[in-house]
Amino acid sequence: MSYLLKNCAAIVTSASDLVLAGQDMLIEGKQIAAIGPNLHAPGAEVIDASGWFIYPGLVNTHHHFFQCFVRNRADLDWTKLSVIEWLDLIYPIFSRLTEDQFYHASVVALAELIKHGCTTAFDHQYNFPRHAGSRIVDRQFEAADLFGIRFHAGRGGNTLPKSEGSTIPDEMLETTDQFITDCARLIDSYHDAGPFSMRQVVVSPCQPVNCYKDTFVESVRLARDKGVFLHTHVGEGESPVIEARTGMRTVQYLEEIGFSGPDTFYAHCWELTHAELARMAASKTGVSHCPEPVYLVGAEVTDIPAMQAMGLRIGMGCDGAASNDNSNLMHTIHSGYMLQCLAANTRKHPVPEPSAFLGYATQGGADLLGRKDLGRLAPGMAADLFAIDTRRLEYVGTRHDPASLIPKVGVGRPVDMTMINGRIVWRDGQFPGLDEGDLFTRAEASFHRILS
């Protein structure tokens, strides 16, 4: 299928390049074929993009889809509990989820991501209750295929028993062998390293405090053997625990295992020292910044200006609904910028320009996932994009700076179109070919079976 977007009000080719005004974009098959004025393409479907701002598709680099079933519940509000009390309350709920509920939670999360311009989604699925079987990630790929979204599956896992210091119920535990064996199965079954790939797998043990050391050692061995990426949680309050156990804080501990480098990215990193951030920058280990959980946790604001100044690779993530009650990466871009402005007076380095935060959620995320075919709009790149029709009253006075619109002003409604790999997956408030009402009914029924 070919599409010709005519007379685009603005094409934000990337967060750091010039914005093109009044030009056209031709999409042929899976990729962008041309960008320029007065393009012609006999046989292409012509779309009038007058008034549209066109952006590179957003790349989400950290999430927990299964947590969508525990949103907006006062009885699970962790601002009223200690962290340990909250974990003791919520993990038993997580451990009751079934394979079918993991699927429907993925449908819910992916739908919201696409509606708000996300075209590539990474999910860190670390919850594997024994009764739910071993095909939870397979069902996530099924959900991604339903919508036509690029999906990078982070196969997580927990191996350390609660009796030895973890927070994980026994029902959610695996052995290292079980974890590694299923990671290998998923890589062999789904991982596609080719251009415009729609499916990839990332070896993602949940976090060092909830796993034996050999889980991380074997993760590195498998990932390097298979040529896939590595991911885990780092720097969200666990460093003192790891230091008490090993004599090293988390960053050093993982570096000595080999769980670092340009094929590795960590989530969060708000508690890390500047020396630890410098070590990550030197090893080219990336960070998925998740700003919205900071509001709920009440933790230190992640020092993004220092990370930027050090040249650290930065992407953005929604995080799970247990610490962020939405799956809206566009909202996260705005929150991320505003949160840094709030903490600006406590920082050595200035807050990056608003457009930089759009860059973290596009090119930055693509870089964390090793995707050179994503993150910007140019001929030969994947046709992953979204469009906002700015001919609305809420955009009056904002249209002079399209690259800063999302981080500085914020966008409070779904986008007008999302395209992935040259296919329109969301347009004019609908998922083409899908019945959203039916998807809602089935997901809601699945939710009530476990939490009513």
Automatic annotation (TrEMBL):
CDD domains: ATZ_TRZ_like. This is 8-oxoguanine deaminase. Belongs to the metallo-dependent hydrolases superfamily. ATZ/TRZ family. It comes from the Bacteria. InterPro entries: Amidohydro-rel, Metal-dep_hydrolase_composite, Metal_Hydrolase, MTA/SAH_deaminase. It comes from Cypionkella aquatica. Keywords: Hydrolase. Residues 53-425 form the Amidohydrolase-related domain. One of its GO terms (molecular function) is hydrolase activity, acting on carbon-nitrogen (but not peptide) bonds.
